[in-house]
Amino acid sequence: MSKLTHIDDHGRARMVDVSDKASTAREAVATGFVRMSTETLALAVSGTGRKGDVRAVAELAGVMAAKKTSDLIPLCHPLALSKVVVEVEPGEGGLSVTARVKTTGPTGVEMEALTAVSVACLTIYDMLKAAEKGMIIEAVRLLEKTGGKSGDWKAD
């Protein structure tokens, strides 16, 4: 197993020093799903819920969350993000959330993409919980990342 980058030689948590790393174009794509009943999905897609347009609010919440990732995840670097796109689309049995995050810098944007998806899913839940409390947030994961020293990666 490779050495964990956020643990020093004494076992203490630390922020990784990226000052000597080259700035490169980096991108990450993450996804997640909010499983719900057909009736709740219809309400979400209609845009007429009591709290407003569920999809639009969740997409905006995801963008805002990506920009705040370093405030939420203790050892993440604050990044100048060049692009964040969050899309919420109806799917079989619920709403699918996808986030694409880009930057040019010395460290990647995987955590920003995952945070965007997670908060968008939580926003969907919040906006629809009056209709259905049993919704399930599932399958939040990284789909791909490009750039950086470790190169490109794509989920199977």
List the helices and strands and how they pair.
Elements: E1 24-35, H1 38-46, H2 54-67, H3 69-72, E2 81-91, E3 94-105, H4 110-128, E4 136-146, E5 153-154
Antiparallel strand pairs: 1-3, 1-4, 2-3, 4-5
Helix pairs in contact: 2-4
Radius of gyration: 17 Å
Helix proportion: 25-40%
Count up the helices. 4
- Average pLDDT, rounded to a whole number, is 92
The percent range for strand residues is: 25-35%
Poorly predicted residue ranges = none
**Strands in their spatial order, largest beta sheet:** 2-3-1-4-5
Biggest sheet character:
5 strands, antiparallel
Please report the total strand number as a whole number. Answer: 5
- Cα(first) to Cα(last) distance is 21 Å
User: Helix and strand string, N-terminal first?
Assistant: EHHHEEHEE
Looking at how many chains there are and whether they match, the oligomeric state comes to single chain
How would you sum up this structure, described in words?
The protein has 156 residues and is of the alpha+beta class. 29% of the residues lie in helices and 31% in strands. The chain has helices at residues 38-46, 54-67, 69-72, 110-128; strands at residues 24-35, 81-91, 94-105, 136-146, 153-154. It has a five-stranded antiparallel β-sheet. The two termini are 21 Å apart.
